[in-house]
Structures are given as C-alpha cells and as structure tokens.
Design goal:
Distance between the termini: 7 Å
Shape: globular
Keywords: Carbohydrate metabolism, Isomerase, Magnesium, Metal-binding, Phosphoprotein
Number of helices: 9
Strand content: 5-15%
EC number: 5.4.2.6
Strand order of the largest sheet: 3-2-1-4-5-6
Radius of gyration: 17 Å
Number of strands: 6
GO molecular function, one term: beta-phosphoglucomutase activity
Order of helices and strands: EHHHHHEHEHEHEEH
Cofactor: Mg(2+)
Structural class: alpha/beta
Organism: Flavobacterium hungaricum
Length: about 220
C-alpha cells in the first residue's frame, strides 16, 4: 500500500535551526534584546513574521512595519549567508537511510516545511531527488499548527490524509499533523513532543520494522 511520508525540514532532515538561531540572535542583539537557545524553542515551526513578533515581545520593543520589513530581509540575508557552504554533511544522522528505504518501497515522499529556502537546501545536501513533492513557505498562507502545508502535500501526492505520516520536531508541527488526522512522529524530546503518536530522539532510533509497520 502506498502511503504519504511527509517530512519537516529544519531540525528533522537538516540542522539549519542553528543558522536560524544565529541570524535571529544578531537581530535581537542589535535591538538590545537578550535572545537565548531557550527562547529559540518558541520559534520552532513558526513563520518568519511571527518569529520576529515573538522576539520583539521578549524585549518589549515596539516597531513600525517599515522597520519590521527591514529586519525580516536582514534576517533572511544573514541566514542565507550561513547556507552557502552547506553540503550532505548537514543531513541529520539516519535520515538518508530512511529516505532510501521509503524510495525503495515506492512510498510517496514529501516535504512540508515553513521554510522559504527548502529547495536550495535540499539541492545543496544532495537529497532533492528523493522528494516527489515539495510544499514550503512559498506555497502556503497559513502557518502550523494550521495543517495546510501537510494537507497540500498529501493532496499533491494524491494520497488520503489518513494514509499520511508526518515527521516533525516542533509542537506546532505535531499539532498540525494531529489536526489533519495524520500519524504524527515526533523527532526530539518526549517532554516537548508528548502530543505525537510516536516519538524518537532522532532517526538513528527508527528501525526498518517501524517503517514497514507504518506502510502496512
């Protein structure tokens, strides 16, 4: 049976989360806002616009739309500068093995990410050919926990949402998968992702038998 396996990007396939943090931290420092790794957890699965609002809220900073637009552009330029040297070494452990297994078993593979830079990241890391469908921040209007990104991916694969499995590292992403009535697989900490149907620390913990169980 053919299922839809939908992957988030940042923190699931590649660890670009660290580059987002550095770029946001640079903006925060310029505004005299203390922005920590703990604060960064609030931005997981959240759009760029909403992320900036959260950071401004942390520092009680009021800003005009003109300033916000300027900072959003600056953040993305800083983030992209970190991606220039990306290669396959950025793929998180165990991910390539699972993608290959799904491809060998002729399953539907999609990306469902808020990132507007998903395609260049997949190209630079050499795994774009695994994906039948890519739905990113350029293709959707509603941010997670709205399930739009996952529902669109399943639709493009022509597979029922109930036959879809989502791999996510954010609370908002897990909630989106659950709202869409898809199987949710959390990648990360159990204390944070406790709403997921299944939780693994990372992809190295996912056995072939687990994937086969999801397919069948």
């Amino acid at each position: 049976m053919k299922k839809a396996f939908i992957f988030d990007l940042d923190g699931v396939i590649v660890d670009t989360a660290k580059y987002h943090f550095l770029a946001w931290q640079k903006i925060a420092q310029s505004l005299n806002i203390n922005f920590t790794h703990e604060d960064n957890e609030l931005l997981k699965g959240v759009s760029r616009v909403r992320s900036l609002d959260i950071i401004l809220g942390l520092g009680n900073v009021e800003a005009s739309q003109e300033d916000k637009d300027k900072w959003l552009i600056q953040k993305n330029e800083d983030y992209l500068s970190y991606l220039v040297d990306m290669d396959e070494s950025e793929i998180l452990p165990g991910v390539a093995k699972i993608l290959k297994l799904l491809k060998d078993k002729n399953q539907g593979i999609a990306l469902g990410s808020a990132s507007k830079n998903a395609r260049p990241i997949l190209e630079k890391t050499g795994i774009i050919s695994y994906f039948d469908v890519i739905v990113d921040g350029n293709d959707v209007t509603n941010a997670k926990p709205d399930p739009e990104v996952f529902l669109k991916a399943a639709q493009l694969l022509n597979i029922d949402p109930k036959d879809s499995i989502v791999f996510e590292d954010s609370v908002a992403g897990i909630q989106a998968a659950n709202i869409a009535e898809m199987v949710s697989v959390g990648i990360g900490e159990e204390t944070i992702l406790h709403e997921a149907d299944y939780i693994f620390k990372d992809f190295t913990q996912i056995e072939t038998s687990f994937i086969e169980k999801l397919i069948n």
